[in-house]
Amino acid sequence: MSFVSYAMILAGGLGSRLCLLSEKRAKPALPFGGKYRIIDFTLSNCVNSGIFDIGILTQYRPLSLRDHIGIGRPWDLDRKRGGVELLQPFQGWAETDWYRGTADAVWQNWLRVEERQAEHLLVLSGDHVYRMDYRHMIEAHLERGADATVAITEVPIEQASQFGVVRTDAGGWITGFLEKPKEPPSGRISMGVYIFRAAALREELLRDAERMSAHDFGKDIVPALVEGGRVAAYLVPGYWQDIGTLDSYYRANLDLLRPDPPFPLEDPRWPIFTPSTENPPARIGPRARIRSAIITHGTIVNGTVERSVLFPGVVVEEGALIRDSIVMGDSWIGPGATIDQSIIDKRAHVGRGAIVGCGEARPNRRCPEHLSSGITIVGKETRLPEGISIGRNARIAADLVEDDFPATGVPSGEALDRKGAVSHTADLVAG
Amino acid sequence: MIPPILVLILAGGKSGRLHALGRMRTASALPFGGKYRVIDFTLSNCVHSGLNRIGILTQYAPLSLQGHIGIGRAWDLDRREGGVRLLQPYVRQRETNWYRGTADALVQNRNVIADAQARHILVASGDLVYKMDYGPLIARHEARGASLTIVTAEDRQDEPERHGVVETNGSGRVLALRDRAPDGAAAAVSASIYLFRARELEKRLSDPGLGPDLIQDMIRPMIAEGLPVFAQPIDAYWRDVGTINGFYEANMDLLKPVPPLNLHDPDWLIYTPTEDRSPSLIGDEGEVTASLVAHGARIEGSVCRSILFPGVHVERGAVVEDSIVMHDARILPRARVHRAIIDKLARIGEGAEVGVGEPVRHREHPHDLHAGLCVIGKRAEVPAGARIGRNSIVDYGVRESDFARGDVPSGATVRARGGRAG
């Protein structure tokens, strides 16, 4: 009997389009929806689909992900057989290298697949928000005897150029696979959810390892397999969101507040598992006003919260206003402070009467491609001085203290970095 | 260095005074404070005090407690040595009996006590809400060479006979444990937390003439015999939640601007198995003030001065005030709930009103239901448009068809027809 029981989750990417949010963590470790991390959706999809043997390929800043996954207990993945393991690049006897791409990451860990004598392999991405029962796709894959099956979703055609766009024939076989095309022929895109026949994948990975390429599933492996004509498309209905950019991260969070949310987070048939923090229930003060918000254990709200997502341990003091914003764990919003259309990272401290997100929106000078829709972002553990005003599309680095801020505030479109900051590259090499 | 201590938590009693809330669970298993169960306070006190050898004596309706405790993981009590065990009565070759009282429960677990080889045995009631470091208690007990130290508290319920009035001399020596203070004045009551020297306890448990009750048959004789029995006051918040009023007031204390019991203290967290629930969602017409809200709640109506447990759904136009609403209960559109305790999975029908009308005492239990509180039992269904009076009880599992007519007058009880399970 051939069945699919092993999944590899790609979770190593740099996520540079997420700007500050991914400065200190891998994309799949991003806090999401009040109490989750992005990877919880894929992991929960796995266990809800009966897949309990999972390898997570990490490379970039794996620490917060490793702390989050632990031994996999919240997902029932602390098992004798199977379970979850993090696959970080390692030194080998002969050749040693960091993962050169997603395909190379799987190739370097191919022993894992061989040990299991897996005939098929599920390859998933750790930075998507969606619900999917992989069993249906597995069934279709086996029934058709495909070399690979690619999960497909429909997006508006104008967004398709950010993804891999597929062309299919009448029988549902993929005839063309264009990675990030300038002019997409349709909105049918690959979700980054694949099932491969292990032997076919092995052959292709071997070929790919020896040629000059990006060693990437979307750019190299899937298009090459498509040439062989045995790659099937599998259309998945429902919500799917790639968390690749600040805008998509922001939107996907606020989507949860819609009167018709894309999917209910509270669904006993498809729970999203995550390690719970030891926090008392949310405490709502006598003068609090909360409309259209997600709140979590450990939050204390004495001010006003509208259309926002508050993570565990956030404190909103009296007279403070939080609107259209995401405030991550244990941040403190001082009395009378205003947070508008902003993302406040963990353990930030917003001084009394400070204003974050005000004035006219001008694209950020440093990274106009990521910060132009009006969102202001405040890095982890930064302490904003009392009464300071921060414009829109502003980027305030992590770990700043009150003295780092100019008394005049930070106007729209500006970035404030910490002094003597180290670049990403230096960080990466230092490990 | 803490000497070896065995903790025995008394959690087996049927709490008749909880009425519908005490069906199918002991007071120790009562949901409390939005996500906890009452026994979490004692268990968390134990682990914070470094006591991790714990037995829980159960007898009445142990299942909800058993499911809650599991292997003790939430308290880090899933250990190779020690940890937590539930001690339910069991059948023996000779002389099989239910626990006939608190002392008898200890007698039947004499082997557990002997095997622990502890120096002292802490016997504590599981239906108390308090935070206490047992370390100083143990140190004082040792320093005084006490055979027994009785923790005392201030009586808040004006029912001293529930625990007993502790009479002491100037140096803390216990002179008597009475039902009431002789002059009726306010006095320190027993907090139902006892620290015994293990040798003394074991000696008494092996006496075949020992009666079944811990206070009457063991503690009072120890005092009368002149053994070194001391009192140790608890200076902090302490509440007995074995009555409807006690349970309600202790919950509402958490909503005070400066709560006398701080659940947010990072150095003394109250541990509990956290359920896998989503965050809470407050809708665009929702409103919440002065409340505690647990995960998985959906609020589309108005909630004020209330405690919502996981999964509670307050629908559009519904109003919940001064109430405790337990897991997965649903308040349907435009229903109004005032001063009510709504048990798990109960449903308040559209436009129904709970807690209205004259504050008449409950007919059968005037002593327990006189403060205007309404109790809606687990899985009970209140029909759409029904009016439920004050000081009334809608019993466990009552269905819409059990309501003779729409309204329930103050001070009445609605029971399930045919006496369904429970």
What would you say this structure looks like, in words?
The complex is a heterodimer of chains A (431) and B (422). Chain A folds into 2 domains: 6-255, Spore Coat Polysaccharide Biosynthesis Protein SpsA, Chain A, CATH 3.90.550.10; 283-424, 3 Solenoid (UDP N-Acetylglucosamine Acyltransferase, domain 1), CATH 2.160.10.10. With 431 residues, chain A is α/β, with parallel strands linked by helices. In chain A, helix 3 (102-108) crosses helix 6 (198-209). Chain A is built from 9 helices and 30 strands. With 422 residues, chain B is α/β, with parallel strands linked by helices. Chain B folds into 2 domains: 5-253, Spore Coat Polysaccharide Biosynthesis Protein SpsA, Chain A, CATH 3.90.550; 281-414, Hexapeptide repeat proteins (UDP N-Acetylglucosamine Acyltransferase, domain 1, 3 Solenoid), CATH 2.160.10. Chain B has 8 helices and 32 strands. Chain B has helices at 39-48, 63-69, 102-108, 110-116, 134-144, 198-205, 214-224, 244-253; strands spanning 5-10, 31-32, 36-37, 53-57, 83-87, 120-125, 128-130, 148-154, 165-168, 174-178, 188-197, 229-233, 238-240, 280-282, 287-289, 291-293, 298-299, 302-304, 307-308, 313-314, 319-321, 324-325, 330-331, 336-338, 340-342, 347-348, 353-356, 374-376, 381-382, 387-389, 393-394, 413-414. In chain B, strand 4 (53-57), helix 2 (63-69) and strand 5 (83-87) form a beta-alpha-beta unit. The longest helix of chain B is centred in the N-terminal third of the chain and has 11 residues, at 134-144. Chain B starts with a strand and ends in an 8-residue tail after the last strand. Chains A and B meet through strand 14 and strand 15 of A and strand 14, strand 15, strand 16 and strand 19 of B.
